[in-house]
């Protein structure tokens, strides 16, 4: 693999976050809200503020700004097709791509929104589905090893589509049951001839009950008061080879291609509390940003939101700002970590650390350029 390099580097201190975001918090009320909050305005229990940010590896600074991007996934297909409509609906959710620029609304300028549409999520994709008083979130990372055969983003987009569709039809199903049904539907879907992907999903209930399913090396974390309460462990067959669902054409079924099943997924039930932050992420984040950096970044954002400059924010607005900005910060810092060469002093990327241990002959250094997607949900008391 050829590792692209960039001049980006991680800021030395949290002051850079405060300086780049201070204006955005003050001026954000002048623009449309990029979050879903409160999610359940008539609920007597909990509501969730949602943040979303993603960036394709085939986007600046890892490619030239004028480089032509070939269309991928379902976005540019028959607009009468249900999956095409759904993918475009997901792409219409306000989202960042980790570009936090001073003087703009949290980095979510009109130009950034155009770039979000232009570059998309790469081989990652996501789903957001309300079902009664529940919220189902899903993230999928298409396996790039299929690139020479098919477009890997077709599988990840279709998996999230079927996951969201099944969730809407079977409200009482658990995420692992939804994943099983979604995978079966994908195997019957003639629009996807081959491919593979990981998936992490969660059902967030109005009473704070959260049910997770995770297959592969995407993952989730729960934080409170800027500390990690729980973080999932990646599922892998061996280094850089995650557990994955796949659809294998007949002519390739004897080739030893990895073919895992939904019943191999990790499942977990967690009771959420007010102030908890749920984070879903693909391995573009976890391969590049050490887990120990999450509390540091969260603390810096909390300090910003608690500053006198932001005293005008209500608790609902504060939760919404935290959700959207934390997702964007994690994507931004994850992308900066991708650009590390391994020559910098201090910390190493998790991918470099693991590669050094598992495959030292490869002499991997620095970050791993990849697609990256982060979703956040802040638990609040309903009004």
From TrEMBL:
<keyword id="KW-0464">Manganese</keyword>
<dbReference type="InterPro" id="IPR036457">
    <property type="entry name" value="PPM-type-like_dom_sf"/>
</dbReference>
<keyword id="KW-0460">Magnesium</keyword>
<feature type="domain" description="PPM-type phosphatase">
    <location>
        <begin position="118"/>
        <end position="379"/>
    </location>
</feature>
<keyword id="KW-0904">Protein phosphatase</keyword>
<keyword id="KW-0479">Metal-binding</keyword>
<dbReference type="GO" id="GO:0046872">
    <property type="term" value="F:metal ion binding"/>
</dbReference>
<protein>
    <recommendedName>
        <fullName>Protein phosphatase</fullName>
        <ecNumber>3.1.3.16</ecNumber>
    </recommendedName>
</protein>
<dbReference type="InterPro" id="IPR001932">
    <property type="entry name" value="PPM-type_phosphatase-like_dom"/>
</dbReference>
<dbReference type="GO" id="GO:0004722">
    <property type="term" value="F:protein serine/threonine phosphatase activity"/>
</dbReference>
<keyword id="KW-0378">Hydrolase</keyword>
<comment type="similarity">
    <text>Belongs to the PP2C family.</text>
</comment>
<dbReference type="InterPro" id="IPR039123">
    <property type="entry name" value="PPTC7"/>
</dbReference>
């Amino acid at each position: 693999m050829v590792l692209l390099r960039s001049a980006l580097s991680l800021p030395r201190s949290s002051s850079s976050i405060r300086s780049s975001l201070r204006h955005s918090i003050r001026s954000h009320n002048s623009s449309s809200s990029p979050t879903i909050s409160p999610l359940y305005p008539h609920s007597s229990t909990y509501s969730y503020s949602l943040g979303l940010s993603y960036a394709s590896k085939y986007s600046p600074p890892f490619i030239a700004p004028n480089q032509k991007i070939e269309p991928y996934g379902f976005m540019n297909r028959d607009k009468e097709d249900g999956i095409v409509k759904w993918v475009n609906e997901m792409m219409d959710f306000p989202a960042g791509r980790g570009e936090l620029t001073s003087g703009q609304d949290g980095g979510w300028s009109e130009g950034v929104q155009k770039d979000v549409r232009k570059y998309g999520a790469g081989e990652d994709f996501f789903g957001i589905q309300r079902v009664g008083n529940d919220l189902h979130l899903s993230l999928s990372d298409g396996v790039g090893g299929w690139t020479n055969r098919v477009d890997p983003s077709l599988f990840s987009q279709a998996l999230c589509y079927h996951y969201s569709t099944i969730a809407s039809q079977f409200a009482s199903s658990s995420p692992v049951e939804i994943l099983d049904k979604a995978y079966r539907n994908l195997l019957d879907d003639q629009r996807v001839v081959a491919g593979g992907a990981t998936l992490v999903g969660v059902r967030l209930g109005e009473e704070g009950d959260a049910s997770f399913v995770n297959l592969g090396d995407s993952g989730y974390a729960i934080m409170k008061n800027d500390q990690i309460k729980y973080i999932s462990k990646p599922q892998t067959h061996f280094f850089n080879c995650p557990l994955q669902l796949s659809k294998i054409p007949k002519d390739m079924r004897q080739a030893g291609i990895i073919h895992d099943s939904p019943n191999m997924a990790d499942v977990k039930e967690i009771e959420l509390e007010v102030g908890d932050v749920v984070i879903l992420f693909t391995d573009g984040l976890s391969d590049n940003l050490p887990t120990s950096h999450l509390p540091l970044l969260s603390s810096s954002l909390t300090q910003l939101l608690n500053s006198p400059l932001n005293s005008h924010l209500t608790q609902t607005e504060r939760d919404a700002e935290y959700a959207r900005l934390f997702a964007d910060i994690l994507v931004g810092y994850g992308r900066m970590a991708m650009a590390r060469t391994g020559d910098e002093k201090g910390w190493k990327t998790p991918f470099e650390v693991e590669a050094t241990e598992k495959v030292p002959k490869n002499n991997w250094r620095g970050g791993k350029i990849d697609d990256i997607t982060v979703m956040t949900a802040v638990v609040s008391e309903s009004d």
